[in-house]
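Retro notes (design track)

What went well: tokenization of the new backbones is finally stable.
What didn't: we kept losing track of which sequence belonged to which structure.
Fix going forward: every design gets posted as structure first, then sequence, in one message. First example under the new rule, 253 residues:
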């Protein structure tokens, strides 16, 4: 049953409830149609962003105050084996950076946008060439824009109800966030009754616990500061960042 803004269950008339269910069905059908279209349109030598993430498991989250080094940093990560990179919109230069990196990254690398919370931002990053969209929360306007633009949407959720809600309204993958407050076993516990979900733990994922998250059923992992060391970035130590990326990739099954 739908809830009000305070979270209390409320009664709605049959016509309104039918509309609610109809809109929800539209999202589910759109996701199914989008997946089919991607398979039909897929190039023999090219993978979709979702396929890249599914295969390579790691999404590197770049959240920096200075993105002038984005190209060098991205090259180091890619050379270390990372195949999906997310630039968060907490930096006002992120949209231009996405456009820049998309020009130099190969077809085997997916470039996405993070911290996306409005439909306008979805359109902006899509124009820049973003191949997937990540958000700390689920918002209908963001979900709708991503579906319209055929962009994989990865909203953040915490509880099983929030996770299922995001999935049923069109999420390609649900970002379980912040995962450090939940533990690795949480992923397995959620998937036990809901095995259809694709979950991406984010927050607190590191080289020591990443394999356990994957062993418990995680579809992919969002990795930030433990992969992209701020001190190494400040020192422009691309060799260290490349080696750290390789250390993560070597942990994959």
């Amino acid at each position: 049953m739908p809830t009000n803004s305070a979270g209390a269950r409320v009664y709605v008339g049959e016509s309104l409830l039918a509309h609610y269910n109809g809109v929800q069905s539209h999202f589910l059908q759109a996701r199914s149609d989008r997946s089919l279209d991607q398979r039909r349109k897929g190039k023999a030598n090219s993978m979709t962003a979702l396929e890249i993430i599914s295969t390579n498991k790691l999404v590197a989250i770049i959240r920096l105050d200075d993105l002038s080094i984005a190209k060098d940093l991205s090259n180091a990560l890619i050379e270390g084996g990372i195949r999906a990179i997310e630039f968060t919109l907490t930096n006002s230069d992120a949209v231009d950076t996405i456009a820049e990196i998309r020009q130099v990254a190969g077809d085997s690398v997916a470039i996405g946008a993070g911290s996306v919370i409005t439909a306008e931002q979805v359109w902006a990053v899509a124009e820049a060439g973003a191949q997937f969209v990540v958000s700390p929360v689920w918002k209908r306007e963001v979900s709708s824009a991503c579906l319209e633009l055929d962009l994989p949407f990865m909203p953040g959720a915490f509880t099983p109800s929030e996770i299922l809600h995001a999935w049923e309204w069109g999420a390609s993958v649900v970002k379980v966030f912040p995962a450090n407050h939940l533990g690795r076993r949480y992923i397995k516990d959620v998937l036990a009754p809901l095995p259809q979900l694709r979950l991406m733990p984010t927050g607190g994922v590191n080289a020591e616990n990443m394999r356990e998250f994957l062993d418990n059923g995680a579809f992919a992992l969002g990795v930030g500061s433990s992969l992209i060391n701020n001190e190494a970035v400040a020192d422009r130590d691309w060799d260290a960042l490349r080696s750290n990326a390789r250390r993560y990739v070597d942990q994959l099954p």
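Added context from the reviewer: The CA atoms of residues 161 and 197 lie 12 Å apart.
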